[in-house]
Write a structure and sequence with these properties.
- This protein is of the alpha+beta class.
- It folds into two domains: about 45 residues; about 160 residues, no CATH class.
- The strands form three sheets. Strands 3, 4, 7 and 8 form a four-stranded antiparallel sheet that branches. Strands 5-6-9 form a three-stranded mixed sheet, with helices on one face. A two-stranded antiparallel sheet has the order 1-2.
- A hairpin with a 4-residue loop joins strand 5 and strand 6.
């Protein structure tokens, strides 16, 4: 661009040196190149961006649906609960017990521990029952990490215990005594004691640990069959 100056009332063209003109030209070229580079970077990033775009419509279901279109099936906590619910019976560990017990009773002298001869009656009880230890699905915490392909499971501290000694599995052989008749509640009271004894024996023999191990094996086997690309991690209860 030409520049002019007023000298003695006359408009005179100002002549600049070659270096000055060359410097101005170089600056112009650099500015144009810089502007072109910025435009290319912005347009190119959009043109060559091949990553999938997930539309967030606000609802969780819509997000999962969009994710599945681009990344395949997204595993959810609800899906796992439904799958484990179908095998909940297999997740229960059971242990059968059976035995024989005797009830012997005599009339005692008042205020003493001495039995009166001829007043004794006996009951022999044959029984069998089942102790079941399981977990409520609603009490099991499940967290899915789809990025790491891991399933985190936290078991409740206290499993559910069912100690069943049905009446049809009880057989009694009685030797009654006219002077000391067998009372109706004697057998039921003895059966209640038997249930407590058998449960305590099962606890002492590690039934809770066996139930936990059994449950983990069933869950891992099931989820490995349904979701082989995921790893199942059982979290420790300490501090939870």
């Amino acid at each position: 661009m030409r520049e002019y100056a007023i000298v003695n009332g006359q408009k005179v063209r100002v002549k600049k040196s070659f270096l000055h003109r060359a410097g101005r030209a170089v600056l112009g070229v650099l500015a144009a190149v810089g502007a072109f580079a910025i435009i290319f970077m912005v347009a190119g990033s959009k043109l060559f961006d091949t990553s999938p775009k997930v539309k967030n419509s606000g609802s969780r279901e819509a997000i999962i649906e969009e994710e599945e279109k681009f990344h395949g099936i997204i595993l959810t906590n609800e899906t796992l609960v439904a799958e484990l619910n179908s095998i909940s019976e297999l997740m229960t560990y059971s242990q059968v017990y059976a035995g024989q017990a005797s009830i012997v009773d005599s009339v005692q002298l008042p205020y003493t521990d001495f039995d009166i001869w001829g007043t004794q009656h006996t009951i022999d009880v044959m029984y069998s029952g089942t102790i079941k230890v399981g977990y409520e699905l609603k009490d099991i915490k499940i967290v899915v990490n789809n990025q790491k392909k891991e399933i985190y499971i936290t078991l409740p501290k206290n499993p559910i215990v069912d100690n069943n000694l049905p009446q049809e599995n009880v057989t009694c052989y009685q030797d009654n005594n006219i002077f000391n008749p067998i009372r109706a509640n004697e057998v039921n009271a003895r059966l209640a004691e038997i249930k407590d004894e058998q449960l305590q024996n099962a606890v002492n023999n590690g039934i809770f640990k066996k139930a936990e191990t059994h449950m983990k094996e069933i869950v891992i086997e099931t989820l490995a069959r349904l979701h082989s690309d995921y790893k199942v991690v059982f979290l420790d209860q300490i501090g939870k």
